Amino acid sequence: MTTRYRVEYALKTHRRDQLIEWIKGLLAVPFVLHSQPTIINQEPGEGLTTLAAADTHQRYAEIMQDVERLIEAHMHHEKVSLPGKSKLKLLVPTVGTFFTPLHLREAFRYQDQRRFISRRRFVAPSFNDIRLILNSAQVLGLIKTSSVELITFDGDVTLYDDGTNLLSDNPVIPCIIRLLRQGIKVGIVTAAGYSEAPKYYERLYGLLDAVHENGVLTTAQKDGLVVMGGESNFLFRFNPAEKSKLSYIPREEWLLDEMRSWKEEDIKELLDLAENALLTCKETLHLPVEVLRKDRAVGVYPIHGAKMDRELLEETVLAVQNTVERSAVGARLPFCAFNGGNDVFVDIGDKSWGVRACQRYLGGIEPSKTLHIGDQFLSAGANDFRARLASTTAWIASPKETVDLLDELDSVTITHAKAS
Length: 420
Ligand code: IMP
Ligand code: MG
Hints:
Elements lengths: L3 H8 L6 H17 L11 H34 L7 H5 L12 H12 L11 H19 L4 E4 L18 H10 L3 E5 L7 H17 L5 H4 L2 E5 L4 E5 L7 E4 L14 H21 L4 E5 L3 E6 L7 H16 L2 H5 L2 E5 L4 E5 L2 H11 L8 E5 L17 E4 L3 H21 L1
Parallel strand pairs: 1-2, 1-10, 2-3, 10-11
Antiparallel strand pairs: 3-4, 4-5, 6-7, 7-9, 8-9
Helix pairs in contact: 2-3, 3-5, 5-6, 6-14, 10-11
The structure holds inosinic acid and magnesium ion.
The site of inosinic acid has 17 residues, from β7 and β9.
Protein name: IMP-specific 5'-nucleotidase 1
GO molecular function, one term: magnesium ion binding
EC number: 3.1.3.-
C-alpha cells in the first residue's frame, strides 16, 4: 500500500535526479495528449495505433531536440563565464557541467527502437527510459564531438553484482580487453579501500588474469589498466610480474596538488567524527552492524549476513553526512558518505578526485575524453555522483547494462569511423 509516509519519502529530493525528472515531465505532456489507450491493438485498427505511435515518436523526438539545444546553450554560457544566462539552469537549478554536447534526438531514436517508448499507450516515458537515452546521447557526444581516451568503472553493480567478484566468465572482460586494444585507458575507481594489491586481485582476478594471458595486447596497452581504491586513496597499476598482477603506486607519484594539503590530523578528526555518528546510528536505529575503521575510511557492515532496510541505510548515510558536513573539518576536507547496498561507508575524498588522479597519472586526459560508468548517481548517499565533476558519465543499473553500453560505444565508433 502506498502510505502518505512512503509518498513523501519518495518525494525527497535526494532520491530524484532533477534533470531526468524534468525531461520526464516534458515527455508526459505528449504522452497524455497523444497516446491512444482506447484503441485495441488486435482490431484492424492496428494501422491507427501505428499512426498514433509515429505521431508520438515525432513529438518526443522534437522535445529531445529542444533539450539538446538547451544543453548546448548552457555549455556556451558556462564557457563564456555567464552561467546565470543559462535557461536550462533556471529550469533545472541543480544541473551541472556538460563536458560534451548530448545528442538526445538521435539517442531517443535509438532507444525507442529498443524500448518501444512511443508505442506504449499506458506507461509514460519512465526514469529508466530517460536514463538510458542520456547514456546513449553521451556515447554519441563523446564519439562525434570528442574522443574516448579513458573509461573509468565503478566496481559493485557496474562490473559485477553487489558484493561479488569479477569472475573469469564475466562478459565485461572481452569488452574491457577491446578498449585496451583500441588504446583506451581503463580505470577501476571503486570505494573498496585496501592498501594491499592481493585484496584487489581477490576481487578482480577474472579481469587481471585475462589481461595477463592475452597475447594480442601489447605491454603498453596492458599498462593502461589502473585500479583506484577507496574512491581516491590507493592507486595500483597492472603489473604482470606481480602475483596479484597489480603494483601499488606510492602517493607521491600520483597525488594531485590539492590533495597534498590534506593533513593526517584532519583525516583522523573527520573519521573520528564519522565513527561516532555511525555508533550513534547503530544505537538509536538498533542496526545489526559492526563498525569498521580503516586508514582512510570508516563504515558499518551487517553481522551474521543480516539484510538492512533501505530506509535505515539511507537514514544512517544522511545522519552521518549531516554531522560531518556541519563540522569545521568537514568543510576543510572532501569526504563521501554513501549507502553501499547493505553497508554504509564514509571515505576520505571522493570519486571526482579518484577520476582526476587517474586522468593525470595516465598522462593528462581531459574530462571531455573521459567516461565514468557507475550505478550510484543520486545526489546524496551515492558515490559515483561526484565523478560528474571530473568527466562525462553514464548511469547504469546492472553489469549487463555496462556490457550493452560498451557494445553501443563500439558500434557508434565503427559507424562514425566509416562515415568520416
Ligand atoms: P564500489 O561499488 O566499487 O564503489 O564498492 C563499494 C563497496 O565496497 C561498499 O559497499 C563496501 O561493501 C566495500 N568497501 C570495502 N572497503 C571499503 C572502504 O574502505 N570504503 C568504502 N567501501 C568499502
Ligand atoms: Mg557501485
